[in-house]
Write a structure and sequence with these properties.
Layout: E1 19-21, H1 26-30, H2 38-46, H3 48-53, H4 64-77, H5 79-85, E2 86-89, H6 104-115, E3 119-122, H7 123-137, H8 140-148, E4 150-151, E5 154-158, E6 165-168, E7 172-176, E8 180-189, H9 194-203, H10 206-221, E9 224-234, E10 241-245, H11 248-271
Parallel strand pairs: 2-3, 8-9
Antiparallel strand pairs: 1-5, 4-7, 5-6, 7-8, 9-10
Helix pairs in contact: 2-11, 4-5, 4-7, 10-11
Length: 306
């Protein structure tokens, strides 16, 4: 389809200067077709066809988990924006607090707030995200980094190896002494307990995102990324949290992974061929010798009780 040929408008140029933008709204950033993000690359890890079609998947309403994550990020990182964007719906303020929202006067009250540009936030949800945010912001290291750091910067650069246009938007990056920097990524989670959270880190390819953020910040600022931290905050009472460090070896391995994906994307851009499952260059590493030239099933160790 012609609308899937957005990549033909990319500026593929390895030495294009990097850029840090502070004036781009989150929605505009995520709808950009002119540069490649981490979430986009995660689709490329599955297949090139998934990468190609990712921007055009049907827009469904955000899941409760995704909405909660957005709310917590906004309250922690951009509290002034939170106040401007959300109206906290306290039932006592309704014209008829004992009635349902189907009551005409109650509905008109809420609709008037929406007409003013507010998103409606239920009071119990507000209390939940406030408790989550307060716990995180009480941490001494977070207080220090929040005071010194750069929040929600949109960073654009071209990959030095392939020339492909890239972008990233770390929650927080912090300049440190000796021309170094730290990056902080806030993750809402069902469990911040170590083994549970580590499973989520692997499942959702968080280190791949980390490697891209490290490279983007390093290229744009000239600083060495010496520290990459996850702040894992639980969604359920008592909204506990824990800070974890991602070690350099895992960042380096994930860098190799995303560079390999970029290399394949570059080949697809040049050939206009975007293979699906089982036919990509990455998949073909999994091929065993068989007459059908088909990937063999490889069962995980736990299947055999190992």
């Amino acid at each position: 389809m012609e609308d899937h040929q957005y990549y033909k408008d990319w500026t593929i140029k390895p030495n294009k200067p990097a850029e840090i933008r502070t004036d781009i709204e989150n929605q505009v950033y995520h709808e950009d077709l002119g540069s490649i993000s981490a979430s986009w690359l995660k689709e490329g890890h599955k297949s090139m066809n998934r990468f190609l079609t990712y921007p055009f998947k049907p827009k469904s309403e955000s899941s409760p988990a995704l909405r909660l994550g957005t709310l917590v990020h906004t309250m922690i990182l951009e509290p002034s924006l939170f106040k401007d964007k959300y109206f906290i719906l306290n039932r006592s303020e309704l014209p008829f607090p004992e009635s349902t929202m189907a009551k005409k006067e109650n509905k008109e009250f809420v609709d008037a707030k929406r007409a003013m540009g507010f998103e409606i936030l239920e009071h119990d949800v507000y209390e939940q995200i406030k408790a989550m945010s307060d716990n995180v912001l009480s941490d001494p290291l977070m207080k220090k980094y929040m005071a010194a750091g750069q929040i929600e910067n949109s960073i654009y650069w071209n990959d030095p190896d392939t020339g492909l246009p890239m972008r990233t938007r770390p929650d927080l990056w912090v300049p440190l002494a000796n021309n170094k920097a730290a990056i902080v990524d806030i993750k809402t989670t069902d469990s911040a307990y170590a083994t549970d959270f580590f499973s989520s880190v692997a499942k959702f390819y968080y280190p791949l995102q980390a490697a891209i953020q490290c490279d983007g910040v390093a290229i744009a600022t000239g600083r060495e990324i010496s520290t990459y931290l996850y702040v894992a905050v639980e969604k359920n009472y008592p909204y506990d949290y824990c800070i974890y460090r991602l070690v350099e070896d895992d960042i380096a391995a994930s860098r190799v992974m995303y560079k390999e994906i970029l290399s394949q994307i570059k080949m697809c851009v040049e050939t206009d061929v975007w293979p699906g499952y089982g036919r990509s260059r990455i998949d073909r590493k999994m091929l065993d010798d068989n007459d059908l030239d088909i990937i063999d099933v490889v069962l995980p160790a736990y299947y055999y009780g190992k």
